[in-house]
Amino acid sequence: MTDKREDIRNIAIIAHVDHGKTTLVDGMLRQSGIFRENEQVQERVMDSSDLERERGITILAKNTAVNYKGLKINIVDTPGHADFGGEVERVLKMVDGVLLLVDSFEGPMPQTRFVLRKALQLNLKPIVVVNKIDRPEARPVEVIDEVLELFIELGADDDQLEFPVVYASSREGYATLRLEDERKDLEPLLKTIIDYVPAPVGDKEKPLQLLVSNIDYDEYVGRIAIGRIDRGRIKNGQQAVICRKNGTVYQSRVSKLYKFEGLGRAESDNAELGDIVAVSGFSDINIGETICDVSAPDPLPFVNIDEPTISMTFGVNNSPFAGREGTYVTSRHLRDRLFKELETNVSLRVEESESPDSFGVSGRGELHLSILIETMRRQGYEFQVSKPKVIMKEVDGVNYEPVELLMIDVPEEFMGVVMEKLGVRKAEMVNMHSATEGYMRLEFKIPARGLIGYRSEFLTDTKGNGIMNHIFHGHEPFKGEISSRQRGSIVAWEDGEAVTYGLYNAQERGLLFVTPGTKVYEGMIVGENARNEDIVVNVCKKKHVTNMRASGSDDALRLTPPKTMSLEQALEFISDDELVEITPKNMRLRKRILNTEQRAKAKSKL
Ligand SMILES: Nc1nc2c(ncn2[C@@H]2O[C@H](COP(=O)(O)OP(=O)(O)OP(=O)(O)O)[C@@H](O)[C@H]2O)c(=O)[nH]1
Ligand SMILES: [Mg+2]
Predict the structure, then answer these.
(1) What's the CA-to-centroid distance between 477 and ligand 2, angstroms?
(2) What does the CA dihedral 538, 562, 328, 373 come to, rounded to 10 degrees?
(3) Which of 49, 171, 368 to mutate to test the pocket of ligand 1 (most atoms within 8 A of CB)?
(4) C-alpha to C-alpha distance for 126 and 192, rounded to whole angstroms
(5) 295: helix, coil or strand?
(6) DSSP letter string over 365-410?
(7) What is the C-alpha separation between 477 and 495, in angstroms, rounded?
């Protein structure tokens, strides 16, 4: 380690969901002067994909860079949602320090713990940023104590415990070193980064080593590998070898080399130790592989990514409406797409099954999988998926199941109902204390199984006033059966179009999901039965013409507005003998066995 890049700092911004990471990047970009004066720049500009913008969350980690007093700060913005933890794990290999953002009101949350643990394990220098200090309910002094406690709990060494603290408001674009200081701009934060995060060190003169931490795609140049140069230098146009994780090696030419600048990438002729670069020319390069000098193919170790906790099947759509709405509908399409996803989605697993039409897909949570489903749907894929199941593990003949740490903030009045519902789901309270303004903070250990489907119930029970967060805790012996959904499905009797008359009769049984004019098929789920059993209803049934005069027209029949479900809600709703059919235009719920008679027979055999 002879060389040091004093002109560079490489950092990642990590935090719990919504603590203000992407907004902070906005502020840094703005104040570094990369935008023209008066240029209209959208908020959270790094959240660039449609899904990220629609949901207001970061899904993929992304690189950017700002210049500060002649130095370059490479920044990686990371997602805070627990399901995308794999994204954080893989990018931490690119940086020497992290900004750990903590909301000055909420304090450390489950994902704060997860990302801090990962950063400490890699020995990265943390800077604690107490963010959102503009909030009237901010309690920065207590939050720092809580953060310190967390560091100690996670076994931080003395050096790591000496973390600097910066107070900030991402949204207002200022940072200060002391609460009483003037709140002006982000300069104090940038200065702390330069002073505290170590400059990259290594050997500039030794053969090239570049660990690929991210993959991007460009229409013109194809796959782009993104990573940091750990050793040596790279030149545009040079030959290099890729060391794969399976030990094989192949050679190709660097056809384009870029460095990050603001929101974009700038072409560059060469780069060296410490630079974070994007490289094209390697058509099937993957995350975790190392780009090396031809003379010295030495791969670098990649991080161990945590295992998936839930899984579901993705199958070819075999409903009567199959193939009508999608562009990619065959098992070949589905297979290729899923295996392609593995190249960049590092914490995902895909397995073939006994049937060529169905694949097991495992991920880190319901959102991890539902984002994949939503992305594929928008790309023109059509398929069907099963209810997510947790992944069990056998240790010495004993069944172990994933257990999550659940943190809940609720107004006191809702505590009773929350505790009751969680009890049924086999949760065990581990901590409870009162937070500010009549809120209680409750902590539970709960089987991951028990959490599936709980979120929507929780929101209803707390009238939208509760906040819940959970994170993988570990595997524990199976905690016993948890009784599932209390309601059955209302199932369509025949193929056709739902009409007011038929629906009117059906709605007496429960809550409908469809409206007059919706095309349905036998075995499709059109509503939720108030009772714990399925019922078959003919929603296509028209009124007998002869009755016309007696009871007035269809218009007189009032239908309650149908319940519209998000994809996540649909996945939570279905039972094991049901599926969700996904097409670019529609989402339908259905029984696995569509034929009413066959379904009844299958059930009687159970
Ligand atoms: N009051 C206040 N609100 C803020 C501040 N920074 C961010 N917010 C708000 O907090 C919400 C989340 O901000 P983001 O920047 O998307 O948070 P994030 O940490 O990037 O979220 P994920 O990437 O999804 O984990 C947005 O509504 C912001 O407007 C701040 O300094 N003060
Ligand atoms: Mg974000």
Answers:
(1) 35
(2) -130
(3) 171
(4) 11
(5) coil
(6) SHHHHHHHHHHHHHTTB-EEE---EEPPEEETTEEEEEEEEEEEEE
(7) 46
CB 209 within 8 A of CB 279: no
CB atoms within 10 A of CB 379: 12
Pick from 481, 475, 317, 486: which is nearest to 386 by CA?
A: 317
Residues 360 and 349: their CA atoms lie apart, in Å, by 8
Which residue type does 343 have?
Answer: E
Residue type, 168: A
In this predicted model, what pLDDT tens digit does every residue of 2-24 receive, in sequence order? Answer: 899 999 999 999 999 999 999 99
* Nearest-angstrom CA–CA distance, 589 and 234: 53
Residue-by-residue DSSP string for 253-271: E--EEEEEEBTEEEE-SEE
User: How far does CA 444 lie from the centroid of its chain?
Assistant: 22
Q: Write the pLDDT tens digit of every residue in 100-149.
A: 999 999 999 888 998 999 999 999 999 999 999 999 999 999 999 999 99
For the full predicted model, state whether its pTM sits above 0.85: yes
Helices (H), 39-84: 50-55
**Phi, psi values for residue 278, rounded to 5°:** -120, 135
- Reduced 3-state DSSP string for 468-511: EEEEEEEEEECCCCCCCCCCEEEEECCCEECCHHHHHHHCCCEE
* Ligand 1 geometric centre to CA of 363 (Å): 26
First-to-last alpha carbon distance for the chain, in angstroms, is: 67
DSSP state of 93: G
Element spanning 11, H or E:
strand 8-15
Long-range contact set of residues 114-119: C-beta below 8 Å, sequence gap at least 24: 114/82, 114/85, 114/88, 114/471, 115/14, 115/15, 115/16, 115/78, 115/80, 115/85, 115/88, 116/14, 116/150, 116/151, 116/154, 117/154, 118/88, 118/89, 118/92, 118/303, 119/12, 119/14, 119/92
Atom of ligand 1 nearest to the CA of 170: 31
Q: Are 260 and 307 in contact (CB under 8 A)?
A: no
Question: What are the φ/ψ torsions at residue 68 (nearest 5 degrees)?
Answer: -140, 115
Pocket of ligand 1 (CB under 6 A): 15, 17-23, 44, 57-58, 79-81, 131-132, 134-135, 169-171
Using an 8 Å Cβ cutoff, are 472 and 82 in contact?
yes
Give the ligand whose atoms come closest to the C-alpha of residue 79.
1
- Where the chain has pLDDT below 70, the residues are 1, 436, 484-485, 545-555
Closest ligand to the CA of 43: 1
Distance 94 CA to ligand 2 centre (A): 18
